[in-house]
């Protein structure tokens, strides 16, 4: 277990920030810390353990540090939450540098030193060029330094295994030996990148850098942070959003063994009990018997929210996208088809419940957290403590599941608010009940689609109305268009493998009262694909067409979409007879810059039971960095999506979320998981697409279409096994 | 409180007898590999052994443990061929994603192979269905257990 001395880490962090701002290599040589400071930090090369504040003579950019002893530290711009990005990021730099990815130690970029957010399946898309350039720039400088030392031409040198090699003579020199000399060279602005034909890492399976520590249990998550003198708190926010504490029994709570304090937020909406350990805090929280004033949201039910969404199908809406005159074509068409879809609120419930540790002092504040938004974590701490951002240190930890939950930072705000009231470091752990009932939820939506059809049953015009919240309006207000549109809703609707002769997308914004809505794995892609792929499947059925053949006809001019569809159909044996008692469904998608086609083969022994025998997927995500982790993301993303598609719906009664823990919030378990998932990754030279959300987006339409084939009825409402579907209560 | 025997070492702790073992391990002793996931024995992230049997530490009061031998994920012995085979298979197949549930998964898998050296898919599903994984690494967990069983055969 590692510990931190906040004062020394704060100082080092500040010095590195100056280094980053200074930018020039010449300045760097004067700022590296003392040998004593470096010696204190044992090398973590190859372990996956996160280091902090490593300063070295050679630091050509924000991502690469090479010490005289040849310790190589790579600073990774996006945060690891399971998606394998630390491994891929290291591979990108290692490819150009000429090092073994297991020979480096890794550091999570501090706020401002890396990506502003990790989310939206964007990491590889945004890292693909800059991290290779960072590696190539460092290589160029190290080679130049070694070549000058040897008196040879740089062109006659290469790099391998952390050393510069003079190819004609076979002489080698470790990077560390020329690091100081290299640091005095100018940083090349446009370093020459390796030819893809010479890649030895990119595109080949590489083991995860964090496997061993996660298997042994030594990987440190936010939940595992231990700081000297730390105490542990747990919280209760009012069960109804907007309510406040009326009264509570402090004496009973403080009488519990090991309890130190009962704290309340300034606006009285949340109570925290601080104790020696979580259990004492939890017991004490119960003993408080908090009485709440529930406020104006105390009457809200799920039906209130659904009714409001359905009402939004009529009346005003924004036209978010238009091509030709879709309403006109539909109005004049002899054949139209309409369907309405409904999706529920969803919780994230990552395996690691929400937690955060903070130490607020007069001269600074340290925050230890798993966060997808380290800058926002820093800024909220600065705001609450009235300290400048430079006095806030965010120590990013491994994330025990993100799925969008840790794109929110309100738990950092909350933790710092409470930590500010006590002199010691405070770790706040939410109970699972708090985690589920005080989540920020994937919104509920209602969609209505109307198509005009030609005589073969293909779309001549499509009109689509989305009713629901604009998540971006709260999360990143400037991104809401001036018309009031959230571009996320274009995923899988406007952005699709299909083209329509006439198209119109409308958005009627309806913000749900009494809850806060947020991003959830797959964002607009998950939301939109259920609707659009379900609708396309309905149109195929209406036309009496094979669902694959119907889609094939629609993507004749889209070679990448066509290729994944043909490949998955072949791999899944689409044309072969379906085994008795089973049914197959298909989904085709383009989202996050990646194409995928998938086929599920299922069995339904009864209307409320689904056995997933096999899922087959063909994915084209452009240039692949680590193909085995692409497969892992599709496997896991599908299963994450299957849980929600089959089982999950957050409901409210009297303004309170009804689901509390994993006994009432069902998560797919191993015995319910598919018997088999086969993923083929298509070779591609296109720029990389995203992959972390691709599988999840496919999950609901894939099952809904297979279930429709099994039951001879459509599934237009999620979750698929809700009473609305199993008992026909639509 | 009786002295707890954890990974072969005696520990005396001063907590109420109703304190779940998990919080003694994590918050008092700093043994962090067993994870908090639900607190109601639904998810398996906190799996430990008591006298060699896999149990959920999150709702096992320390007062009921007595002097029985507790093994946490930290106490898994790499000299044990089953432990070595399971952990190696997990790394070889890159099972982990976020990794939070995995120490519990490993504990459950080792316990399975101790009683069932060559499990079928159904036996694996049955033994492992108490250990949730939100990242959905089930396909690889199943494969890794078969892989480990094959290595031990």
UniProtKB/TrEMBL annotation, chain B:
UniProt key word Metal-binding: yes
Recorded GO MF terms: 2 iron, 2 sulfur cluster binding; isoquinoline 1-oxidoreductase activity; metal ion binding
UniProt-listed PROSITE patterns: 2FE2S_FER_1, 2FE2S_FER_2
EC number: 1.3.99.16
Pfam families: Fer2, Fer2_2
Keywords linked to the UniProt accession: 2Fe-2S, Iron, Iron-sulfur, Metal-binding, Oxidoreductase
Domain of life: Bacteria
InterPro entries (UniProt xref): 2Fe-2S-bd (IPR002888), 2Fe-2S-bd_dom_sf (IPR036884), 2Fe-2S_ferredoxin-like_sf (IPR036010), 2Fe-2S_ferredoxin-type (IPR001041), 2Fe2S_fd_BS (IPR006058), Beta-grasp_dom_sf (IPR012675), Diverse_Oxidoreductases (IPR051452)
PANTHER family referenced in this protein's UniProt entry, alphabetically: BLR6218 PROTEIN (PTHR44379:SF2), OXIDOREDUCTASE WITH IRON-SULFUR SUBUNIT (PTHR44379)
Protein name in the entry: Isoquinoline 1-oxidoreductase
Species per Swiss-Prot/TrEMBL record: Acetobacter pasteurianus (Acetobacter turbidans)
């Amino acid at each position: 277990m590692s510990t931190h001395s906040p004062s020394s880490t704060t100082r080092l962090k500040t010095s590195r920030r100056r280094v980053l701002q200074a930018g020039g290599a010449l300045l760097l040589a004067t700022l590296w810390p003392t040998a004593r400071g470096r010696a204190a930090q044992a090398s973590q090369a190859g372990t996956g353990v996160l280091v902090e504040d490593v300063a070295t003579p050679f630091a050509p950019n924000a991502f690469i540090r090479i010490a005289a002893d040849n310790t190589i530290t790579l600073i990774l711009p996006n945060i690891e939450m399971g998606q394998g990005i630390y491994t891929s990021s290291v591979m990108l730099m290692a490819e150009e540098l000429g090092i073994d990815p297991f020979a480096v130690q890794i550091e999570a970029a501090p706020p401002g030193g890396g990506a502003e957010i990790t989310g939206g399946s964007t990491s590889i898309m945004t890292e693909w060029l800059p991290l290779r350039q960072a590696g190539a720039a460092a290589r160029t400088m190290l080679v130049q330094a070694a070549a000058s030392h040897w008196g040879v031409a740089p062109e006659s040198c290469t790099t391998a295994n952390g050393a510069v090699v003079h190819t004609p003579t076979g002489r080698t020199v470790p990077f560390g030996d020329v690091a100081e000399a290299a640091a005095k060279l100018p940083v090349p602005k446009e370093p020459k990148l390796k030819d893809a034909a010479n890649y030895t890492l990119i595109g080949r399976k590489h083991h995860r850098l964090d496997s061993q520590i996660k298997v042994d249990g030594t990987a440190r998550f936010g939940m595992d942070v231990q700081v000297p003198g730390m105490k542990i708190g747990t919280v209760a926010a009012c069960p109804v959003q907007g309510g406040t504490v009326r009264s509570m029994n402090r004496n009973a709570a403080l009488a519990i063994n090991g309890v130190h304090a009962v704290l309340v937020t300034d606006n009285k909406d949340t109570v925290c009990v601080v104790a020696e350990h979580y259990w004492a805090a939890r017991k004490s929280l119960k003993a408080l018997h908090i009485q709440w004033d529930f406020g104006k949201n105390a009457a809200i039910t799920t039906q209130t929210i659904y009714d409001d969404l359905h009402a939004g199908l009529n009346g005003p809406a924004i036209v978010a996208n238009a091509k030709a005159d879709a309403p006109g074509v539909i109005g004049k068409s002899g054949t139209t088809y309409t369907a309405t879809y409904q999706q529920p609120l969803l919780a994230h419930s990552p395996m690691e419940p929400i937690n955060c540790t903070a130490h607020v002092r007069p001269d600074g504040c340290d925050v230890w957290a798993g966060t997808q938004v380290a800058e926002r974590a820093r800024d909220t701490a600065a705001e609450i403590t009235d300290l400048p951002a430079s006095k806030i240190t965010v120590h990013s930890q491994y994330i025990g599941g993100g799925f969008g939950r840790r794109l929110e930072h309100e738990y950092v705000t909350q933790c710092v608010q409470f930590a500010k009231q006590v002199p010691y470091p405070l770790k706040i752990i939410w109970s699972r009940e708090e985690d589920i009932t005080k989540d920020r939820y994937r919104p509920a939506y209602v969609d209505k689609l109307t198509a005009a059809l030609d005589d073969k049953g293909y779309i001549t015009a499509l009109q689509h109305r989305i009713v629901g919240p604009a998540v971006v309006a709260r999360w990143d207000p400037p991104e809401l268009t001036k018309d009031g549109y959230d571009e996320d809703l274009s995923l899988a609707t406007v952005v699709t493998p299909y083209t329509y002769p006439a198209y119109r997308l409308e958005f009627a914004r309806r913000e749900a009262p009494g809850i806060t809505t947020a991003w959830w794995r797959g964002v607009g892609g998950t939301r939109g694909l259920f609707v659009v792929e379900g609708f396309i499947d309905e149109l195929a059925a209406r036309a009496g067409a094979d669902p694959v053949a119907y889609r094939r006809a629609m993507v004749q001019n889209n070679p990448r979409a066509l290729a994944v569809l043909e490949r998955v159909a072949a791999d899944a044996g689409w044309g072969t007879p379906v085994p008795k008692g089973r049914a197959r469904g298909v989904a085709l998608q383009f989202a996050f810059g990646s194409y995928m086609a998938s086929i599920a083969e299922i069995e339904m022994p009864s209307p409320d039971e689904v056995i997933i025998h096999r899922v087959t997927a063909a994915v084209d995500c452009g240039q692949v960095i680590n193909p085995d982790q692409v497969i892992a993301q599709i496997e896991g993303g599908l299963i994450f999506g299957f849980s929600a598609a089959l089982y999950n719906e957050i409901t409210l009664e009297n303004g309170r979320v009804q689901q509390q823990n994993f006994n009432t919030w069902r998560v797919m378990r191993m015995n319910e998981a598919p018997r088999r998932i086969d993923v083929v990754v298509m070779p591609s030279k296109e720029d990389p697409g995203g992959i972390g959300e691709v599988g999840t987006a496919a999950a609901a339409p894939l099952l809904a279409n297979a279930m429709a084939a099994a039951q001879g009825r459509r599934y237009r409402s999620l979750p698929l096994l809700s009473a609305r579907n199993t008992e026909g209560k639509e | 409180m009786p002295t707890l025997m954890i990974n072969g070492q005696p520990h005396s702790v001063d907590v109420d007898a109703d304190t779940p073992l998990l919080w003694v391990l994590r918050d008092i002793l700093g043994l962090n590999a067993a994870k908090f996931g639900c607190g109601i024995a639904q998810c398996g992230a906190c799996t430990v052994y008591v006298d060699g049997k896999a149990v959920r530490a999150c709702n096992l009061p320390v007062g009921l443990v007595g002097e029985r031998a507790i093994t946490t994920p930290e106490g898994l012995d790499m000299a044990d061929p089953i432990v070595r085979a399971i952990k190696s298979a997990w790394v070889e197949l890159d099972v982990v994603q976020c990794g939070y549930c995995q120490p519990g998964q490993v504990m459950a898998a080792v316990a399975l192979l101790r009683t069932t050296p060559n499990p079928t898919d159904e036996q694996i599903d049955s033994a492992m269905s108490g250990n949730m994984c939100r990242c959905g690494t089930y396909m690889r967990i199943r494969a890794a257990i078969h892989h480990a069983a094959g290595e031990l055969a």
